[in-house]
Specification:
Layout: E1 3-5, E2 11-13, H1 16-30, H2 36-44, H3 49-60, H4 69-79, H5 85-96, H6 106-115, H7 120-132, H8 138-153, H9 157-170, H10 173-186, H11 191-204, H12 207-220, H13 229-242, H14 246-257, H15 266-279, H16 293-303, H17 308-320, H18 324-332, H19 342-357, H20 361-372, H21 382-398, H22 402-415, H23 419-429, H24 432-440
Helix pairs in contact: 1-2, 2-3, 3-4, 3-5, 5-6, 6-7, 7-8, 8-9, 9-10, 9-11, 10-11, 11-12, 11-13, 12-13, 13-14, 13-15, 14-15, 15-16, 15-17, 15-21, 16-17, 17-19, 18-19, 19-20, 20-21, 21-22, 22-23
Length: 448
């Protein structure tokens, strides 16, 4: 069997048909289309060592179900003896990372990437480790990774999309939009570029345009069954919430947090969205559209979060169910051996939500201010972290700290226009005797 080059210029030992299948699997994964093509690869090209290694890696990360990661890796190790040095190094890295949490995978993949810098799978793994690893050098690491990727991979759609995502996080929305548009001009259904575009619309406050765009993209460009669709639906829901379309928001909630909601996204989409609606008074405090599923998923993850981003979303899940006892337990737990940032941040998050539920908003606000001081190290995007900002705003208003709330709103409005935030700021600016009338006229001063 001969060794050929894949689409990234890296050696793969197999038939020409095997390499085509490998390229499709890599492209699907980098394009947020999921792991189906990887599983098809090992069925249709059973002799391809690196394919078994790739599937074992994804199984270890929890991205595929029903796959025996050790068995797949053993197959890869048996088959790779006749492969290239690159393939042996890839399989060896998968083996070395078996017991490594993904936020620490940079230590496993950095040496491999130095030898094979064109491998975007390894580069993506290191980038994700930086984003979710509560690292003080996150921005520097990502900038270096992307600069190297441009040198080695050129204007690859994934590289441009990642550059666009980082640009919108910096607030450079024109640059972000340009990167995404360049990708979509040649790959109209490339999900990472679509994801950047919907972030840009949100950060610009273009909610009506953004809702039309993401609805059309999901309907006309995305493949049916794409595993990223629930998250893009969440983005559509943020537009609907910003436009105060209560009927649409409640329909969207049923999709994100109802009985048929994606379990993979139940906390970062469903709980996050539900909590926003509870703050806004659109959903009653005791109402649970998930019929207990959010709380069931949140409890074990709040006790032992695999990384901080999941931990604070699990705390939100507990808040959605009103579980003050569990939140206090999370806040008091010994986190000395936990993932980076969990011991530093999760107690404040859990305390803040428990205090909000027990009508101690001033202490909740103090805790949330400490949490938000960590900025991007909390993981995820600004749009995802905004639920913590909304919680802080609600706490400040309930505590009567309206001047602080107004300053926080002005900072957010400086970042992006928002009709709902402008109305909240206006309501905070009217005299207290008029505030009830403003609310009665449909101008809710703040969530909660």
């Amino acid at each position: 069997m001969s060794t050929r080059q894949d689409a990234l210029g890296l050696p793969v030992t197999g038939t020409a048909e095997d390499v085509v299948l490998w390229d499709r699997a890599v492209d699907d994964y980098l394009g947020y289309e999921g792991s189906d093509a990887v599983q098809d690869l090992v069925v249709q090209a059973p002799g391809l060592a690196i394919g078994h290694g790739f599937l074992a890696w994804l199984a270890d990360l929890g991205e595929v179900e029903g796959v025996d990661a050790e068995a797949e890796l053993a197959s890869a190790e048996r088959l790779v003896a006749g492969g290239s040095e690159r393939e042996r190094a890839f399989v060896a890295a998968v083996r070395a990372g078996r017991e490594t949490p993904f936020y620490a995978l940079d230590a496993v993949w950095e040496g491999y990437l130095r030898d094979y810098p064109a491998d975007l799978l390894a580069r993506f793994a290191i980038a994700v480790a930086a984003i979710f690893g509560f690292r003080p050098d996150m921005e520097e690491v990502l900038a270096q990774l992307l600069a190297e990727a441009v040198q080695v991979n050129g204007r690859h759609p994934f590289v441009l999309s990642f550059l666009g995502m980082q640009a919108q996080e910096r607030g450079d929305l024109d640059t972000a939009h340009a990167y995404a548009a360049e990708v979509l001009a040649s790959r109209p259904g490339f999900v990472p570029a679509g994801h950047v575009t919907t972030h840009v619309h949100f950060e610009r406050g273009d909610h009506a345009t953004g809702l039309r765009w993401i609805t059309g993209f999901m309907r006309d460009q995305m493949r049916p069954g794409c595993g990223y669709a629930p998250h893009l639906s969440w983005h559509a829901g943020l537009h609907e919430l910003a436009m105060d379309d209560r009927a649409a928001v409640l329909r969207r909630l049923a999709v994100l947090a109802g009985p048929e909601a994606s379990q993979d996204w139940l906390l970062s989409n469903g709980a996050s969205y539900l909590w926003r609606l509870k703050l806004a008074g659109a959903v009653a405090a005791g109402e649970d559209p998930s019929a207990g599923a959010i709380a069931e998923r949140a409890r074990p993850l709040a006790d032992e979060p695999p990384f901080l981003f999941i931990g604070w979303h699990a705390a939100i899940g507990l808040a959605c169910s009103g579980d003050v006892t569990a939140l206090r337990s999370v806040a008091a737990a010994d986190r000395s051996a936990a993932a980076p940032g969990v011991a530093d941040v999760l107690p404040d998050v859990a305390t803040a939500f428990a205090d909000l539920l027990e009508d101690s908003p001033s202490s909740a606000a103090d805790a949330l201010q400490r949490v938000l001081a960590h900025g991007g190290r909390l993981g995820g995007s600004r749009a995802q972290r905004e639920v913590l900002e909304d919680s802080l705003l609600a706490a400040l208003v309930r505590a009567g700290r309206t001047e602080e709330a107004a300053r926080a709103l002005m900072r957010r409005l400086d970042r992006r226009p928002s009709r709902s935030d402008s109305l909240r700021l206006a309501a905070l600016s009217v005299p207290a005797t008029r505030r009830g009338a403003a609310t009665a006229e449909g101008v809710s001063p703040l969530p909660g």
